[in-house]
Design brief:
The protein is α/β, with parallel strands linked by helices. It has one domain (about 5-160): 2-Layer Sandwich (Nucleotidyltransferase, domain 5), CATH 3.30.420. It is built from nine helices and five strands; from the N terminus they run αββααβααββαααα. The chain has a five-stranded mixed beta sheet. A hairpin with an 8-residue loop joins strand 1 and strand 2 (about 30-40). The longest helix has 24 residues, at about 140-165.
Length: about 210
């Protein structure tokens, strides 16, 4: 999981960050991005130690994600930056551009800017430093995997908090994704301020509510 990182470290890049996001697909809630920086000696020492098993957050259990997050967020050898884009911004500039904005904010929220960024997926514009896009990077880069876990845990916690404000939608359970339960609640209650009105199921539910209401 450190093969890509080693290439940059050996080329003299000391401050290397991994960046990933959570929440591009849901019908509601923010998209959350995270940037993670680790020192080379720490990462090499803990790759098969305390960070053993760290990978794409989607492949980890909720308990494993929380455990890795707790370690990463309290470890003095790890720096974390988080950035978000809310539903209204997603509707205004589209989900791709909002995701890129959240990633740029995450990098900008690190204690110090990295020299280079490894970002999961396709190329990202607007980052405050140079970057390399890595398809399926969360399964091949330790730094990106760490970022994917941070983004997922932070977003899930946010959705649980928002569930207390809008309990009728079940956000704590499905985290805003378009499950049958969520879609049913959406058509029953109509969209709330957290819903992405540029996403088809939401716009359809809103249109039906306006016609029948």
């Amino acid at each position: 999981m450190l093969g890509l990182e080693q290439t940059y470290w050996e080329d003299g890049c000391r401050r290397l960050a991994g960046v990933d996001e959570a929440g591009r697909g849901p019908l509601a809630g923010p998209v959350v991005a995270a940037a993670v920086v680790m020192g080379r000696s720490f990462a090499e020492r803990e790759e098969h130690g305390l960070l053993d098993g760290l990978t794409d957050s989607k492949k980890l259990s909720a308990a494993a994600r929380e455990a890795f997050y707790d370690f990463l967020s309290t470890c003095p050898d790890v720096e974390i930056g988080v950035g978000t884009a809310e539903s209204n911004e997603i509707d205004r500039i589209n989900i791709l551009q909002a995701t890129h904005a959240a990633m740029a904010r995450a990098v900008g929220n690190l204690p110090c800017l990295p020299e280079h960024v490894l970002v999961d997926g396709r190329p990202v514009g607007g980052l405050p430093c140079t970057s390399t896009s890595v398809v399926r990077g969360d399964a091949s880069s330790l730094l990106i995997a760490a970022a994917s876990v941070v983004a997922k845990v932070v977003r899930d916690a946010r959705m649980r908090e928002l569930d207390k404000i809008y309990p009728q939608y079940g956000f704590a359970k499905h985290k805003g994704y378009g499950t049958s339960e969520h879609v049913q609640a959406l058509f029953e209650h109509g969209p709330c301020p957290l819903h992405r009105r540029s996403f088809r199921p939401v716009s359809e539910a809103q249109a039906i509510r306006e016609r029948t209401g």
